[in-house]
Amino acid sequence: MNVNKTKYIFVTGGVTSSLGKGIISASLGKLLSERGYSVTIQKLDPYINIDPGTMNPYEHGECFVTDDGAETDLDLGHYERFLNNETSQANNVTTGRIYQTVIQKERKGDYLGKTVQIIPHITDEIKRRIKLLGETKDFDFVITEIGGTVGDIEALPYIEAVRQLKWELDGSALFIHLTLVPFLAAAGELKTKPTQHSVKTLLEAGIQPDILVCRTEHALNSDIKTKIAQFCNVDRNAVIESIDANSIYEVPILMQKEGLDKIVLKKLGLEFSSDVQLNNWGKFLKEIQNPKKEVNIGLVGKYIELKDAYKSITEAIIHAGSDNSCKVNIDWIDAESINDNNTAIKINNLSGIIVAPGFGDRGLEGKISAIKYIRENNIPFFGICLGMQSAVIEFSRNVLGLKDANSTEMNPKTSAPVISLINEQKNITEKGGTMRLGAYDCYLNNKSNAFQAYKKNNISERHRHRYEFNNHYREDLEKAGMNIVGVNNQKNLVEIIELFNHPWFVGVQFHPEYKSTVENPHPLFCGFIEACILKKNQD
User: What angle do CA 129, 135, 141 make, to 5 degrees?
Assistant: First the structure.
């Protein structure tokens, strides 16, 4: 289903951060796509970093990577998982990137001697970026989520830009404002004042929201919805309840019940038929809510205090669990807390272990201790990026006998650099956006767990790393029993290692979690969870 002109939906938030603008945007996108519309979602991030690639995971959570090599906000992961469509560089815009572009233009003389200002130059560049996706003619809807909250000083240029844009788009745009309706236990009632003040702040910036999505712990009765509508100048049926859900995957169903997609279509002058069925989504939810099996796995990482640092991994586990009709419980294990003396206590009761990606030497020795126990005790293992590299180091030390084996990232002077810097990285001094990023091909060995999972030889996966398997040690490692089952033939880079004398031991240099979606759970995660179920049944 195509519309005559691309429609733009702007999603803002007020009162507090983390209300779920990304999930609401993704849910609306899902509902519209199920109606036959082509939809994409972009994120405007107010921080001055060019991208989140150099930001601490404790501050920002996971850095999501697209096929074309963009390091982006984790919300783009939600967009892809819900819509089952790839995003790109154009789907994430930062203040840093906006200012960088404007300053570069000024240095080239593009502004013909004019004084460069927030308005019009910064706002014009923001508008240009917003419209890029629509100008491709590939999308009926472009949903734009504006990061932060209304009133933030960092967000003001974005708010002004979209205010201008709505009028320029002449009836092809609308605003959705996500706000909080808190419950005060002492008073025993829901309070609408935070929402009223949030909308007032938005009005002061010249924007009247068309739809209000109210995040709440308790259901909003008719009187509260009427009150919000009256004080915030919106239609009564445009006050949407977004009640806390057990899973983010319930939100599209909840938004459908509230009629969010219908209201959007009506306000944009588009016809709509009856409700969409969401059959596949419902089946997925049913498997999550009514699993036939249950397993406990461990995730060994060094950022476990902030679960969002591994957001795509945990969501990929949920997808794979649903595919196996299995509830997967995650035991979060701090890599720094593990050593050879306590590994058995921390791991022995688990049916499988994922060793997570990361950078730097903190927690590395704990990961190596965990992998040694996993390897020797036939526990299903899945190592991702540094997790795979840790497996190579462990095997080199304890099987091949290279006691000094290490990565040059951790020890530049190691006598056995089994993991070393990629050749193309050796002359790079700037850290931002310079890793091996994005999608690269990989060829699989037929006799491997990876091939059994993918059921094809040629695959493409996303990467984010500077260091790689050192081919100088490849022959010795293979002779010792480590199997190289996935290789990038263009650059002769090792992508996947396995141990064939083990129930399921797979390490991958890439990040498979980035490509797992509700409709297409990632085959490696599915294979891993299947192995964990088998392990539990055998114990």
Answer: 90
- Shortest CA distance to 14 belongs to which of 226, 253, 227, 175? 175
Which candidate in 232, 385, 442, 532 is catalytic? 385
Residue 148 to residue 150: CA distance in whole angstroms: 7
Is residue 415 classed exposed, middle or buried when 0-12, 13-18 and 19+ CB atoms within 10 A define those classes?
Answer: exposed
DSSP structure class, residue 116: P
Residue 526 catalytic? no
pLDDT above 70: residue 2: no
Q: Is 326 a catalytic residue?
A: no
**Residue showing tokens 């983390």:** 18
- pLDDT-derived band at 442 (thresholds 50, 70, 90) equals very high
Contact 460, 439 (CB under 8 A): yes
Collapsing DSSP to helix, strand or coil, 335 comes out as helix
pLDDT at 422: 73
SS3 449: helix
Q: Could you check whether the bond before residue 120 is cis, i.e. omega within 30 degrees of 0?
A: yes
Known catalytic residue: 385? yes
- In DSSP notation, 345-409 reads HHHTT-S-EEE----SSTTHHHHHHHHHHHHHTT--EEEETHHHHHHHHHHHHHTS--TTEEETT
Q: What angle do CA 355, 358, 361 make, to 5 degrees?
A: 100
| Res 131 pLDDT > 90 | yes
Residue of 513, 522, 526, 530 marked catalytic: 513
- Per residue in 39-74, pLDDT (tens digit) is 999 999 999 988 887 887 777 789 999 999 999 999
Strands 141-146 and 183-184, by their bridges, are: unpaired
- DSSP letter string, 250-292: GHHHHHHHHTHHHHHHHHTT----S----HHHHHHHHHHHS-S
> In 3-state terms, the chain is what percent helix, strand and coil (to 5)?
40, 20, 35
User: Among the options 319, 463, 511, 522, which is catalytic?
Assistant: 511
